[in-house]
Design brief:
471 residues; alpha/beta; FAD/NAD(P)-binding domain; five-stranded antiparallel sheet; 14 helices; 23 strands; binds flavin-adenine dinucleotide; binds nicotinamide-adenine-dinucleotide; NAD; FAD/NAD-bd_sf; flavin adenine dinucleotide binding; Pyr_nucl-diS_OxRdtase_dimer; nucleotide-binding
Length: 471
């Protein structure tokens, strides 16, 4: 990790600017997740005086403890699963021997530079921004304090402070050495067994990785199904895949008590059952500490869980917010999308306002769950006339050949004759999603989609079949 300050003009005392340095900037960016880093670099390249602040690593959670290292783990786990599929399809490969050290090394060497952001700092400073490593706190309109020094922003402040793992108030949990996404991504060795609290995106992706590396995994999900925000059909397929891979799935039951005796975690569930494992991963959602950033001083309610923003990502005059804290979807692509809108707004450039109607998301389990727009339930809550079509991926020729599980589900607004949502679960489900993301985003008429030629034998040909099933 680079220590101290780096900036285009000065870097005295190692952690802050020198007394002679101008403390007035056009824009101050607090928090350099993917969106904040993009805003800071782009505005600096356009000639604005930008102060960029992060108390940890430039780039935020995604490159160091989120998307990128977790997808490296998933790539490795998928390779193991694919090798094991040779039996019954192509002969034998002998015993597949997982080795976590290969993954851990790749995460250190290729993904995170051993959690050192010097390359990112240099890139930002190279674009003309001033970087200070420290915790920014909004003192008032146009004023941000960092370690006792106050900086002034003449145009405005952009907040991209992100989220951390939300640890639920379960009796005993806080006193145990539980893991969050940070510890599991930094792990150089995997445990023999693990309890994963939370069967959302993080819990499901990482449970499958660990199981494929030989860890005995139990997922505990308080809601009645895994990936509770996605279509129920996808949850059903995933639960049965997990069980076939030896993952124990406990759905519809919360944890009530956690004990750690120095070696083993013991968790008592709401139904009275007790489970034990060497490790416990908390993957029960994320939280933002908005008060700590001083957002209440610019009009955000003291108890707000997310920052209300308009369609230009403005919080109030001279303050913008991007990323997880806006509550529009905790995804890197949302952070980057909003950053683009803020950059235009700050520069006074024209462009479309933010719209989340065709928000895509992909959970990188195997089978992969891609989705865009509304689920059937959301559509029925919002629209008068909803049609749904579902095609099991095994009924497509390519899915049958591959012995694949999954489905394509379409959700249409029958009154307007367009798709408003879709789910593509299967091999490369996130890639198949691309076609449907275009359809929802561009509001392609259903008749136009029905008259398209779908290549044979592809998985996306299942879209044509599901269109025929819309009812
Ligand atoms: C395990 C895991 C896997 C994920 N996989 C995916 C995926 O596959 N695809 C996807 O789209 N998303 C994924 N996500 C979500 C994704 O990581 C986030 O949505 C993304 O990082 C965007 O977050 P952000 O822009 O809000 O800021 P963050 O990435 O959270 O960064 C915020 C930064 O601000 C800093 N900061 C906070 N407060 C202050 C302050 N007061 N002063 C200065 N700095 C401060 C923080 O230290 C941090 O560096 C994953 C997340 C996790 C945890
Ligand atoms: N592939 C991706 O894009 C990807 C991958 C990982 C994370 N993410 C992002 O990160 C966010 C956070 O992920 P996450 O999985 O932590 O959150 P999540 O909100 O997706 O899932 C958390 C799950 O934990 C459950 N839960 C809450 N309290 C519980 C308790 N006490 N006991 C048992 N279960 C409990 C919830 O019902 C929920 O299903 C996601 O919403 C997503 O936006 C994205």
């Amino acid at each position: 990790m680079s220590d101290g300050t780096a900036n285009g003009t000065d870097s005295s005392r190692g952690t802050g600017p020198s007394g002679g340095m101008d403390r007035t900037f056009d824009v101050i960016v607090i928090g350099l997740g993917p969106g904040g880093e993009h805003v800071a670099g782009s505005l600096a390249e356009r000639g604005l005086r930008v102060l960029a602040l992060d108390d940890r690593l430039v780039g935020g959670e995604c490159p160091y403890w989120g998307c990128i290292p977790s997808k490296m783990m998933i790539r490795a786990a998928d390779a193991l699963a694919e090798a094991r599929r040779v039996d019954g399809l192509a002969g034998t490969v002998g015993e597949v021997t997982p080795d976590w050290s290969v993954v851990a090394r790749r995460i250190r060497d290729e993904a995170t530079d051993d959690w050192d952001d010097q390359v990112a700092v240099d890139r930002l400073v190279g674009k003309g921004a001033t970087f200070v490593r420290g915790r920014g706190v909004i003192e008032g309109s146009g004023r941000v304090a960092v370690d006792g020094t106050t900086y002034t922003a003449t145009t405005g402040i952009v907040v991209n402070t992100g989220t951390t793992a939300a640890v639920p108030p379960i009796e005993g949990l806080a006193d145990t050495p539980y893991w969050t996404n940070h510890e599991i991504i930094e792990a150089t060795e995997l445990p023999a067994s693990i309890i994963v609290l939370g069967g959302g995106a993080i819990g499901c992706e990482l449970s499958q990785v660990m199981a494929r590396f030989g860890v005995d995994v139990t997922v505990v999900e308080a809601a009645d199904r895994l990936l509770a925000l996605e279509e129920p059909e996808a949850s059903t397929v995933l639960a049965s895949t997990f069980e076939s891979e030896g993952i124990t799935v406990r759905q519809g039951v919360g944890a009530e008590k956690v004990v750690h005796d120095g070696h083993t975690f013991t968790v008592t569930l709401a139904d009275g059952s007790v489970i034990s494992a060497e490790r416990l991963l908390v993957a029960t959602g994320r939280r933002a500490d908005l008060r700590a950033v001083g957002l209440h001083r610019v009009g955000v309610a003291e108890d707000a869980r997310t920052v209300p923003v308009d369609d230009r990502c403005r919080v109030t005059g001279g303050v913008w917010a991007v990323g997880d804290i806006t509550g529009k979807g905790a995804f890197t692509h949302v952070s980057m999308y909003q950053a683009g809108i803020v950059i235009r707004d700050v520069l006074g450039d024209d462009g479309p306002p933010a719209s989340y109607a065709a928000l895509p998301r992909v959970t990188f389990t195997d089978p992969e769950v891609g989705s865009v727009g509304l689920t059937e339930k959301q559509a029925r809550e919002q629209l008068a006339n909803v049609q749904v079509g579902v095609t099991p991926i095994g009924e497509t020729t390519r899915g049958w050949i591959a012995k694949a599980d999954g489905l394509i589900k379409l959700v249409a607004d029958a009154d307007r004759g367009v798709l408003v949502g879709a789910t593509t679960m299967g091999p490369a489900g996130g890639e198949v999603l691309g076609a449907l993301a275009v359809a929802v985003h561009a509001e392609v008429p259903l008749e136009r989609l029905r008259s398209m030629i779908y290549a044979y034998p592809t998985l996306h040909r299942g879209i044509e079949d599901a269109l025929g099933r819309l009812a």
